[in-house]
Amino acid sequence: MTFGTDMMTSNTTGDTLLKVEHLSMKFGGLMAINDLSFEARRGEITALIGPNGAGKTTVFNCITGFYKPTMGMITLRQRDGKEHLLERLNDFEITKSAKVARTFQNIRLFSGLTVLENLLVAQHNALMKASGYTILGLLGLPAYRNAAKAAIDKASYWLEKAELIDRADDPAGDLPYGAQRRLEIARAMCTGPELLCLDEPAAGLNPRESAALNTLLYAIRDEGVSILLIEHDMSVVMEISDHVVVLEYGQKISDGTPDHVKNDPKVIAAYLGVEDDEVEEVIAVELEGGDH
Ligand SMILES: Nc1ncnc2c1ncn2[C@@H]1O[C@H](COP(=O)(O)OP(=O)(O)OP(=O)(O)O)[C@@H](O)[C@H]1O
């Protein structure tokens, strides 16, 4: 059973899902993103990394409609071939029509509602549609009863994947931090996204929580849903990503597999905070230091 989307076909894995072209975002005199282009493929985990202030969150905010880019195109191509130009849509349309879901750096759950209720609230739109938006519909229509059952089934499915099924009836605010993070991701999955954007999902997690997060992310990818994530923890990025895009000062400096990126002198220079032509020297010094 899969709940990623109704129209999943395995032969579409590897197609381009998201295409960012010549994206720029200016805040007053500051060019936070400068002519950035990259792609994210269907059914893959793409990581967006870079030093503090590189522009990662700004890219997320442009993709998810929180910012209107100064220039550039962001195209999302759905499984059925329908294309959405995200820079022309508002955040609500991006979630509902383009099927892009996101989580934030800070947790945003309904902490007084139970774990299950948090996942049902995420399916509110589908439930209201099935009710015909009438009280009679809510009370009697078979369509509503079927939709309510489907919503509970979908919630249970993602609670299992997030290792939270035993906590379904507990208030979300009572969960440990790592479990709250997984609940947020499960909630996003209940909206049936094709692209899931995660802003630093592993921040503050202990190793056990981090492993549970990875298991959940792999389960999502196995459904054919693409993940775009910002992450500071390099061990997480290198372990789980299929594809890594590296930003520095709003520009792309590297793009490829984790292995390609981690050996790219430009990336090493950006993380060590040195100029490109000093990289070899600095790496030699680091290695020498490591020998002592
Ligand atoms: N709303 C805004 N108004 C003005 N400047 C902004 C705004 N949002 C971001 N910036 C600036 O744009 C640049 C990129 O910021 P952004 O938060 O996208 O970087 P980041 O790579 O996500 O950083 P971090 O890893 O620290 O979260 C920074 O110089 C930041 O100060």
From TrEMBL:
Keyword ATP-binding part of the UniProt annotation: yes
ABC transporter domain ranges (all copies): 18-274
Coiled-coil ranges (or none): none
InterPro entries linked to this entry: AAA+_ATPase (IPR003593), ABC_AA/LPS_Transport (IPR051120), ABC_transporter-like_ATP-bd (IPR003439), BCA_ABC_TP_C (IPR032823), P-loop_NTPase (IPR027417)
Transport in keyword set: yes
GO molecular function: ATP binding
CDD domains xrefs: ABC_Mj1267_LivG_branched (cd03219)
Keyword field: Amino-acid transport, ATP-binding, Nucleotide-binding, Transport
Protein family: Belongs to the ABC transporter superfamily.
Name used for this protein in its record: ABC transporter ATP-binding protein
Phylogenetic placement of the source organism: Bacteria, Pseudomonadati, Pseudomonadota, Alphaproteobacteria, Hyphomicrobiales
